[in-house]
Amino acid sequence: MYSSDKPIQSIEADALGRTTFSRQLAHAILSYKETDNLTIGLCGKWGSGKTSIINMAVETIHEETRELPTDEQMIIVHFDPWNYSDRNQLIGQFFSAISFELQISDRSEKLKEAGKAIERYSGVFEWASYIPVVGQYLSPLATLVGDVGGQLQDIASKKEDLAKQKKIVIETLLEQPQKVLVIIDDIDRLNNEQIRLIFQLVNSVAGFPNIIYLLSFDKSVVVRALGNEQNCNGEEYLEKIIQVPFDIPDTSPEHVNSVFFERLTSILSEEDEVFDRQYWSDVFFGCIAPFLANLRDVNRICNVFKFKYDLMNGELNWIDLLAVTAIQVNAPAHYMTGLRTV
């Protein structure tokens, strides 16, 4: 069976020992009682399991708050920014995701009121022009007509309305006790401009009270993007926005190898379960183990190996075939060099 690269959905499926870290993340979120908005960063390389950790943290939050009254339970909003390529569409859907979640049928009247306020704010924001954010502008000049004086008057009116609507949002969110957790995953999939926009939204435009932002990203990608877009030190810029950073610890080689051996056993036929263990040990630690850093590496090697093994089973020593596959997947230049020398 081929293995997909999909994140796990529950703690029961955790094979890499990340449950404790996920629970620590959940507890950090639940322990925040202040009304000021908070931004948490979940940082990890591609393939480190950020989405899986988020899913397990959300599961923990649900488990530990299910006995609370409905009006004390945390509201969780998932926003996937990489579904939108247009900047204005991204902004509109960002606010829509929050306002929609606050207005579903079983919410309190205060929450519904807050959701409607955010919706109105979004509507004004969509048409607001030349709103400065860290030296940049979030939207181009809207369809304004008339002379320059008329344009400036219209811009001033839009900005005044925007400020008024934001004040209403802040007041309505402060009047209700529930925390809203907004999860934005895979930020490192966005282009540089969109990455900058997401951080400006959560830091300034949507810095509402009683909202906790959980942002997931590869730090090196985001630092580079912010540095390029803002013409500044990207790491310092990021540190001003992320108040609580969580760096995903490296998965232990024991956990990764255990999953790899389990996948490998499911691929091999019964005839191949008897092999030279010393030879296997030499090949594994010398040629395969160095390429196994995370679950994504396991899936890539095992998927390609299964395809080859199904085609060539009985023709080659499976240990050699696996070693060649590991090189092909992780060091293709060396693999092609080897082919040319054969």
What's the CATH C level of the largest domain?
Answer: Alpha Beta
The largest pleated sheet is described as: 5 strands, parallel
Calculate the terminal CA-CA distance, rounded to whole Å.
Answer: 31 Å
Please list the strands of the largest sheet in the order they lie side by side: 2-5-6-1-7
Low-confidence stretches: 129-153
Q: Structural class, from secondary structure content? A: alpha/beta
Number of strands: 7
CATH superfamily placement of the largest domain: P-loop containing nucleotide triphosphate hydrolases
Give the second-level CATH assignment, the architecture of the largest domain: 3-Layer(aba) Sandwich
Number of helices: 13
Beta-sheet strand percentage?
A: 5-15%
Descriptive overview:
The chain is α/β, with parallel strands linked by helices. The chain folds into 2 domains: 11-247, P-loop containing nucleotide triphosphate hydrolases (Rossmann fold); 253-341, no CATH class. Helix content is 56%, strand content 9%. It contains 13 helices and 7 strands. The protein has helices at 19-30, 50-65, 87-102, 109-127, 148-174, 192-205, 219-230, 234-241, 253-267, 277-288, 295-312, 318-330, 332-341; strands spanning 38-43, 75-79, 132-133, 136-137, 180-184, 211-217, 244-247. The strands form 2 sheets. It has a 5-stranded parallel sheet, sandwiched between helices. Strands 3-4 form a two-stranded antiparallel ribbon. Helix 1 (19-30) crosses helix 2 (50-65), helix 6 (192-205) crosses helix 7 and helix 11 (295-312) packs across helix 12 (318-330). It is elongated and about 75 Å long. The relative contact order is 0.13. Residues 129-153 have low confidence and may be disordered.
